[in-house]
Amino acid sequence: MRVPLSWLREYAPVPEDATAEQVLDTMVTVGFEEEEVHRPTDEIQGPVVVGQVLSREPEEHSNGKTVNWCQVRVVPEGQEQTLTGKGIDPTGVQGIVCGAHNFEVGDKVVVTLPGAVLPGDFRITPRKTYGHTSAGMIASVRELGIGEDHDGILVLSRIGLDPEIGADALELLGLYDEAAEINVTPDRGYGFSIRGVAREYSHAVNQPFHDFVLDAADRAPQANDDAGFPVELADQNPINGVPGCDRFVTRVVTGINPEAPTPPWMASRLRLAGIRSLSLPVDISNYVMLEFGQPLHFYDLATLQDKITVRRAQAGETLTTLDDKQRTLDPEDLLITDASGPIGIAGVMGGASTEVSAQTADVLVEAAHFDPITIARSARRHRLPSEASKRFERGVDPTIQAAAAQRAVELLVELAGGSAQDAAGDVVAGQRPEPQAVRLEADYPAQRVGVEYSPERIEELLIQIGCSLESTTAGEGQTAWMVTPPSWRSDLVAQEDLAEEVARLDGYHKIPSRLPVAPPGRGLTRQQIGRRRVMNTLAAAGLTEVLDYPFVSQAENNLWGAAQAGTHVPSIKLFNPISEVKGWMRVSLLPGLLETLRRNHSRGFRDLALFQAGLVFLPASQVGSRHVPAGGLKLDDDVLADVNAGIPEQPWRVGVVLAGQEAPTAPGVGARALGWQDAVDYAFMVADTLGVEMQIANGSHQGFHPGRTATFTTADGALVGWAGELHPQIVAAGNLPERTCAVELDLDALLAARPDGVQAQDLSVHTAATQDVALLVDADLPAGVLVTTLREGAGDLLEDVRVFDVYQGDRLPEGQKSVALAMRFRAPDRTLTADEASASREAAVALAAERHGAVLRG
């Protein structure tokens, strides 16, 4: 919330010489975080004065452009020029070349004299142009930084001003004002108004606050349901039983001048508050919203038909909103309608058909109170955040609608020349929401905060923020109250909230600093321990951990989420993605890892080994829920079950990507490129860390090289992942380094296969017997399958077997290969004889011959 200081001073005891920084320092003491200072004079400096055009001589030049050679008086006639400097004429009349044509002789304009600086560090100096020396500039609103109009200069009489020649134009236009921007948290929606900020400033400086909203309410005419424009509240489908609109005030102002200019003081305040000045009716609506915190809407009365009805949308209805976009409405949307159909989305944005225009003579003012949940859902559903919805969804005071409408009517009468109707239409649906009383015991704030507060101090502070207190019974010697919060504090619903208010207003600086004692706990779960061990192992092996966004494209999910090409992988579609391309939740870690590798490689990092452990998102049979639970309500079992059923499965995965060299070249040491063997090693490193026996086999995956892909399974045959070199086409299309390799494993599946305990084996003191064997087998037989068969055939005496050579060549039969293996035998209780080791080896070879047709080579 941007708070212009001149505006705040009208309602709060802000010293005249206080700066925005000092106001921010004060607001911090009552819990509002400071954001920024907005000061126009940081970008614009004088001399910028009021001038009067004495003459204007159009001159056409060879480039086809017509400019005006003007004489402009910047000092009242008969007075001397007190400014000095290069280009300042002592007579008080400046010669200026101007390319705009929307002014006449006698008009008063804004003149930037030599020495002035405009936004964008545009410095005004005398300069030769079009055959004249132009000593200054007649400024437009864009050049002054106070608007977007650049079609012509700012003529002061057209915005209702007739200032003295030579007057300070910066002061005239409110450019010496400044704004303090504060951060308003969602639970303190009352802070989105000058009323709320002024009240909090008064609390901070311990000064009384006079609520100016109550004054406007006293001036408002008595509510009369039968007068004013007819309104019907007909919400047939309230959310959680709460009507979408419980209060609707209408006022009518006739005979306005819609083209009347917005006065500079109002335009200046709106600009400092971050709202662009558009037209006087729109500016008045925004001004009252910022001042009171109550959003308003103005209708062209001539465009309304029959009566206004507030209801929910019907299936298939559409509305063209003020931004000229046609929107398809949802049955949950709350609408403002008349006989023609929808004319606005309640609390979010009005419709184009009833917009106040340059032809509007009569205006209907709407000030309503809407359900925060209804407004928040509509704003998000249509992706249509607005200043109005921001306030409604955080809670608007339900008692100030008549006061806000009265303030708007008074401004329309004063500034637009309208006439107000005597009667006010005030329609109420059901009972006006009343704040619920909260029980508070006097010792509770001290228990929560750690500072002793007397009952008298607690009463003083709670009454200061607008609460009413009624003493009630408590334990022996104890004081307690039933505290009723004020209407504008919908966030005060529990005694914790009241204790926080006491601490906030008494001063956070009085709260002692003490380090909390960590509570005892059961420590990490078995799954958490396993995941951390995996990540620590990979980091210790020299890999770099990264963290990627989980947002990917559907094409990436189709590529990495299925082994076979052409498969559509079901994915979770985001309702409001940060990018339309990256609009789905990932089903694999590899898209993000490969993007990180590509980005780092493009920045000159050539040797990369990255890993990530994270969640993927797999849609269940139900995606999402038709129920959108409201905050603060306990869900019934059916709703909770439906919400839980719509949550996608989120298993853990671990992924690794590799490119470049294992280590740089050094004297006497050649570089070794990272390859698919390293990817396989890292996969087994993860499994070994968890104590899981993982089987490897040749595999295929559309994202990997057809001949350099490994699949991994657990002992029960469950597939847990892939590793290998990426497909050359994928590498080329993704601008990845050549021979990029990757691993992805199902970490949850590996954790599930993890044994309950690891039994350490005894170290044998007996000598091992080693024998080699070379077997002729089919070229398609994976070496891993052969190793498994040999282990099974050799029995318990076989301690280890490993492949040390694979040969395919002309000296072997076509379609076969020779696999050489080293077999190590050992008995736990004795030294093996050569015959025992040979017998075990022969049994292993025999089983390999039976299963795979293996032939022992000599």
From TrEMBL:
Example of a GO biological process term: phenylalanyl-tRNA aminoacylation
SUPFAM superfamilies: Anticodon-binding domain of PheRS (SSF54991), Class II aaRS and biotin synthetases (SSF55681), Nucleic acid-binding proteins (SSF50249), PheT/TilS domain (SSF56037), Putative DNA-binding domain (SSF46955)
Textual note on the cofactor: Binds 2 magnesium ions per tetramer.
Top-rank taxon, per record: Bacteria
Annotated GO MF terms: ATP binding; magnesium ion binding; phenylalanine-tRNA ligase activity; tRNA binding
Binding site for Mg(2+): D491, D497, E500, E501
PROSITE patterns listed in its UniProt record: B5, FDX_ACB, TRBD
Pfam families attached to this UniProt entry: B3_4 (PF03483), B5 (PF03484), FDX-ACB (PF03147), tRNA_synthFbeta (PF17759)
Keyword tRNA-binding (UniProt): yes
Residue intervals of the B5 domain: 433-513
Gene Ontology CC entries for this record: phenylalanine-tRNA ligase complex
Domain TRNA-binding: 42-170
Main localisation: cytoplasm
Entry-linked InterPro entries: aa-tRNA-synth_II/BPL/LPL, B3/B4_tRNA-bd, DNA-bd_dom_put_sf, Fdx_antiC-bd, Fdx_antiC-bd_sf, NA-bd_OB-fold, Phe-tRNA-ligase_IIc_bsu, Phe-tRNA-ligase_IIc_bsu_bact
TM regions (residue ranges): none
Keywords: Aminoacyl-tRNA synthetase, ATP-binding, Cytoplasm, Ligase, Magnesium, Metal-binding, Nucleotide-binding, Protein biosynthesis, RNA-binding, tRNA-binding
E.C. number: 6.1.1.20
Cofactor: Mg(2+)
The reaction(s) this protein catalyses: tRNA(Phe) + L-phenylalanine + ATP = L-phenylalanyl-tRNA(Phe) + AMP + diphosphate + H(+)
PANTHER family (alphabetical): PHENYLALANINE--TRNA LIGASE BETA SUBUNIT, PHENYLALANYL-TRNA SYNTHETASE BETA CHAIN AND LEUCINE-RICH REPEAT-CONTAINING PROTEIN 47
Protein family (similarity comment): Belongs to the phenylalanyl-tRNA synthetase beta subunit family. Type 1 subfamily.
Quaternary structure (record): Tetramer of two alpha and two beta subunits.
Protein name per the record: Phenylalanine--tRNA ligase beta subunit
Organism: Kocuria subflava
Organism lineage: Bacteria, Bacillati, Actinomycetota, Actinomycetes, Micrococcales
Gene symbol of the encoding locus: pheT
